[in-house]
UniProtKB/TrEMBL annotation:
SMART domains: AAA. The chain crosses the membrane at residues 48-74, 115-140, 146-166, 226-251. This is Cyclic peptide transporter. It is found in: Cell membrane. GO terms for cellular component: plasma membrane. It is a multi-pass membrane protein. InterPro entries: AAA+_ATPase, ABC1_TM_dom, ABC1_TM_sf, ABC_transporter-like_ATP-bd, ABC_transporter-like_CS, Cyc_pep_transpt_SyrD/YojI, P-loop_NTPase, Type_1_exporter. Keywords: ATP-binding, Membrane, Nucleotide-binding, Transmembrane, Transmembrane helix. Residues 18-289 form the ABC transmembrane type-1 domain.
Length: 537
């Protein structure tokens, strides 16, 4: 049902057409069986032959139409789902995404979407099979309503008794899906922690045995249980079905008088029914997995929607003079022991300043940077840009004032969304002494496979090309050699200031503090001091 409503969301009209033609095709197939059975029973073969040809053509054409429409629809729906989820992730609050975790999002974007894609691509065949089954039942009903009532009774008995097993199987599928989130976390440990694993044999062994193997075994166990239950449900259903055939063939003629041609009609129809029923049973796990995945997708979508930010197209970025933080706080809630609160912070930052933000590890500098750049919304208090409070309605616009290189920056291999020519980029590459390593052609970087220090210089190139009023660097110089570090503090920063830019630098390099206009020191989330630098060059 969830799958149908998922497809309906894509296009009600097309789904209705596809289901209708699918049913027509299935009904025609059932009609063919009725004709064959009648042809076996009486002599008007030539008339029946024409009807047979007609029905075969209808069955074929409607089947092709149904499949074509549904394949297109299903792929459209999955395409939309992928884009919608990606958009929702990109427009959700950063803090919320951090709490959800990458593994959870990756599992949904890859595994869940794929499970839905697999199920929806089998949907056209399911419709045709279902229609064939219904058509066959109708034919049985046309032969004798007593037999029809009996078959339906058995059918509902089989369904009711299978329901328990199907519910149990579905529960196991839900558990298996939870295991998948854990597995994705472990896969991340493998890719991100490969060096640490390779260098430490005992760590690798413990990780493989206690973490990966345990999660994989749990995933395997739940999947086996689910699939065995599905198979048992299928076999139980088949057993009842065989019982129905046996009853009709051997017991029923003794109870009521049935002409031999009607009896052969039943047997033929029942035998024909086996194929679509078998195929439907085989699809049960796929459908169940898709419904679990759709639930996961909906849950993620809902949680992302609740924390969605307004993404109004940003108006042009203005020149600014004053940025005020009034009673701003931000807390991380993990547990009472590890709770960290930044603030309360009251500060005014001015345009054109070079401000160094300093403090020990864990003092809150990066958190402060995320608040300043609008990546985190203050928990309490307000940020005002030239007197205008930054709220959820203008935070997207506010963020467009910043070019940043965070400590955990990401390097795109294309100059995405930048209004800069290859020549501009090449000029900056020369300044950053990377022109022999990297070329920019059609806005694409020839490589990003560089040393960490060189990668940071490439991130700086992107920040330069963004050309925004405020620059924020989170420990940019920490990976640079002494010469480049010196260049950064003594040339790059003053040049930016000279171009009218504001520069905020998170730094531990205290012997370069003289190149700042102001130093703000944080300690345990509080501003310890906020000093205008006296020795300004
Ligand atoms: N994503 C997060 N979830 C929960 N707690 C966090 C998160 N990021 C940081 N913290 C907590 O907030 C505190 C401040 O972290 P923050 O990264 O702002 O410090 P920092 O001054 O930049 O440190 P460093 O100099 O080591 O980079 C830390 O004690 C940390 O435990």
């Amino acid at each position: 049902m969830q799958l149908i409503s998922f497809l309906f969301r894509s296009s009600r009209k097309l789904v209705s057409i596809a289901i209708l033609t699918g049913f027509l095709s299935g009904a025609s197939s059932a009609g063919l069986i009725a004709l064959i059975s009648r042809a076996l029973g009486n002599g008007a073969v030539s008339q029946i032959a024409w009807a047979f040809v007609g029905l075969a053509i209808v069955s074929l054409i409607t089947s092709v139409i149904s499949q074509m429409v549904l394949i297109q629809l299903a792929q459209d729906a999955v395409f939309k789902l992928r884009l919608q989820l990606s958009r929702q992730i990109l427009s959700s609050e950063l803090r919320h995404l951090e709490q959800l975790g990458n593994a959870r999002m990756m599992a949904t974007l890859t595994e869940d979407v794929q499970a839905v894609a697999t199920a929806v691509s089998s949907f056209p065949f399911l419709c045709i099979d279902l229609a064939t089954v219904v058509g066959c039942f109708v034919y049985i009903g046309s032969l004798s309503w007593v037999v029809f009532a009996m078959v339906m009774g058995l059918f509902f008995f089989a369904f009711a008794t299978c329901q328990w097993m199907l519910n149990q199987a579905r529960r196991r599928m839900v558990f298996a899906r939870e295991d998948q989130d854990v597995l994705f976390r472990h896969f991340r440990s493998i890719t991100d922690g490969i060096k640490e694993m390779k260098l430490h044999y005992p760590r690798r062994q413990v990780f493989l045995r206690d973490e990966l193997e345990t999660a994989s075994a749990s995933f395997r166990r739940h999947n086996i249980h689910a699939l065995v239950l599905f198979a048992s449900a299928g076999s139980w259903g088949k057993l009842i079905f065989f019982f129905a055939i046996g009853f009709v063939m051997f017991a029923l003629p003794g109870i009521v008088s049935i002409p031999p041609e009607t009896l052969s009609g039943y047997v033929l129809t029942f035998t024909y029914l086996m194929l679509p029923l078998d195929k439907m049973v085989l699809k049960l796990p796929i459908l169940s997995q898709a419904s679990v995945s759709l639930q996961k997708i909906d849950m993620l979508g809902l949680s992302l929607k609740q924390k969605a930010e307004s993404t109004t197209i940003p108006s042009t970025v203005q020149t600014w003079n004053r940025l005020e933080l009034k009673s701003v706080t931000h807390s991380y809630y993990q547990s009472e022991d590890t709770k960290f609160t930044l603030g309360t912070i009251d500060l005014t930052l001015n345009a054109g300043e070079i401000v160094f933000i300093v403090g020990g590890n864990g003092s809150g500098k990066s958190t402060f940077a995320k608040l300043l750049t609008g990546l985190y919304a203050p928990e309490t208090g307000t940020i005002l840009l030239d007197g205008e409070p930054i709220t959820e309605h203008n935070r997207e616009w506010y963020r467009q004032h910043f070019s940043t290189v965070f400590a955990d920056f990401y390097l795109f291999d294309r100059l995405l969304g930048l209004d800069a020519s290859d020549e501009d980029a090449q000029r900056y590459l020369q300044q950053l002494q990377l022109e022999h390593k990297v070329q920019v052609v059609d806005g694409r970087l020839s490589t990003t496979e560089l040393s960490q220090g060189q990668r940071k210089r490439l991130a700086l190139l992107t920040a330069y090309l963004e050309d925004r009023p405020i620059y924020l660097f989170d420990e940019w110089a920490s990976d640079q050699d002494p010469i480049f570090r010196e260049l950064f503090y003594t040339e790059f920063l003053p040049k930016l200031k000279h171009r009218g830019k504001t520069v905020w630098v998170i730094s531990h390099d205290d012997h370069y503090f003289q190149f700042s206009d102001r130093v703000i020191k944080l300690d345990y989330g509080k501003v310890e001091y906020d000093r205008v630098t006296s020795e300004h060059p």
